[in-house]
């Protein structure tokens, strides 16, 4: 993203009430092809899991792991989590379960649940840059720093008054490093800075070239601005995109809450079981 940070949307500007966004309808399960033909791709925070005051406070509700494991089995392994979190962090949240995943906004990947991660040619963020960005957390109590290796996030859910100061400080650093290949991702009470050479979409592109995802119709569900790159490529695979909590451009439908997403995924299994009965 080469635009000035002054032009980046603040959290209140992100498309929750965007009159230009299409009217969407609740997601019909009949729209989804048979699970043997589908690749299920799921964002985590704000999509599968409810947001929490801090990244470490998110938790996996009862029954979700069972649903994900059954979907993984029914799709013959073609289910993946697509997140800005690192693979290590994803595994910590869902422990003891491991899932195929695109982590770090496309920086790293695991194709099979028990396989080693596959680097997506993403260099770690420069240490000096990290130190300068990390100092922004001193602007106010309540700003939480999260080092993801390939990116750095400044969470201000506990310090919403600091939002403009955070973006102003990032803008100053960005101006000093005008040639640095970095991208700023505004999100829900978070400002994240990462290398510009990869996105969730580049990770999904790579994922869809590999078995068991190759040749399937992807179904992607996401909630935040960082998921819009994946919404945009779903037509390339004749796939479906659904947003959570807001109306987004280019989606086939939307869910109001992560709980609605979890119920939808569980009902996909129920529908297949009903179809299999004589």
Describe this structure in words.
A hairpin with a 7-residue loop joins strand 4 (108-110) and strand 5 (118-119). The chain is of the alpha/beta class. An eight-stranded mixed sheet has the order 5-4-3-2-1-10-11-12, sandwiched between helices. Strands 6-7-9-8 form a four-stranded antiparallel sheet, with helices on one face. It contains seven helices and twelve strands. It has helices at 64-74, 87-94, 127-134, 163-176, 200-207, 228-233, 258-276, and strands at residues 38-42, 79-82, 101-103, 108-110, 118-119, 144-147, 151-155, 182-187, 190-195, 217-222, 240-244, 253-255. The radius of gyration is 19 Å and the shape is globular. The termini are far apart. The chain folds into two domains: 5-9 and 124-195, Alpha-Beta Plaits (2-Layer Sandwich); 23-121 and 198-276, 3-Layer(aba) Sandwich (Rossmann fold).
């Amino acid at each position: 993203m080469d635009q000035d940070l002054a032009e980046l949307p603040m959290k209140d500007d992100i498309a929750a009430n965007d009159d230009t966004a299409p009217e969407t309808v609740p997601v019909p399960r009949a729209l989804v092809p048979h699970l043997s033909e589908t690749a299920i791709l799921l964002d985590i925070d704000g999509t599968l899991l409810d947001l929490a005051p801090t990244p470490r406070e998110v938790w996996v509700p009862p029954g979700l792991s069972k649903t994900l494991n059954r979907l993984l089995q029914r799709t013959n392994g073609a289910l993946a989590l697509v997140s800005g979190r690192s693979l290590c962090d994803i595994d910590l949240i869902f422990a003891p379960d491991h899932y195929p995943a695109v982590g770090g906004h496309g920086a790293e990947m695991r194709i099979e649940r028990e396989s080693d991660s596959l680097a997506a040619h993403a260099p770690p963020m420069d240490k000096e840059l990290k130190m300068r960005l990390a100092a922004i957390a001193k602007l106010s109590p309540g700003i939480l720093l999260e080092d993801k290796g390939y990116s750095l996030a400044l969470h201000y859910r506990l310090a919403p008054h600091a939002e403009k100061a955070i973006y102003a400080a990032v803008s100053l650093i960005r101006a000093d490093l005008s040639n640095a290949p970095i991208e700023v991702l505004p999100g829900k009470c978070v400002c994240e800075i990462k290398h510009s050479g990869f996105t969730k979409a580049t990770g999904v592109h790579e994922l869809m070239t590999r078995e068991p995802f190759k040749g399937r119709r992807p179904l992607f569900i996401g909630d935040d601005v960082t998921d819009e790159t994946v919404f945009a490529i779903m037509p390339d695979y004749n796939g479906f995109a659904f947003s959570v909590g807001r109306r987004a451009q280019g989606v086939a439908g939307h869910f109001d809450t992560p709980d609605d997403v979890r119920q939808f995924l569980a009902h996909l299994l129920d529908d297949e079981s009903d179809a299999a009965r004589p």
